[in-house]
Specification:
107 residues, mainly alpha, Arc Repressor Mutant, subunit A, elongated, Tscrpt_reg_PadR_N
Length: 107
């Protein structure tokens, strides 16, 4: 496969896939911070989401206006078949390389 993802892009795409059609910026941010155990900037998440959408790995839709958000709508993201195929490729590649590490003890 010709396309590849950076680590941060891959993590965001994995989280979008895991949340299915319920993934939105703040939820992705909170999940990412929980998993990597460090603070992440929301604007960095939005930049990656835009990049992933431009590449065709995710698509977005707006939810209904919410009164608790001042009438603003959440933007939800969902992984595309192309995005899932890329994640499958990345996983297989990493797994293949990992399995080449000799079965030795480092302890």
């Amino acid at each position: 496969m010709k396309h590849s993802l950076g680590e941060f892009e891959e993590l965001v795409l994995l989280i979008v896939g895991a949340w299915r059609d319920r993934a939105y910026g703040v939820l992705i941010l909170k999940t990412l911070e929980e998993k990597v155990e460090k603070k992440v900037n929301i604007s960095a998440v939005h930049v990656i989401l835009k990049r992933l959408e431009n590449k065709g790995f995710v698509k977005s839709r707006f939810g209904s206006p919410a009164s608790n958000r001042g009438g603003r709508r959440k933007k939800f993201y969902v992984i595309t078949a192309f995005g899932k195929k890329l994640l499958d490729h990345q996983y297989a590649l990493r797994d293949n390389i990992y399995r080449q590490i000799p079965e030795i003890s480092f302890g």
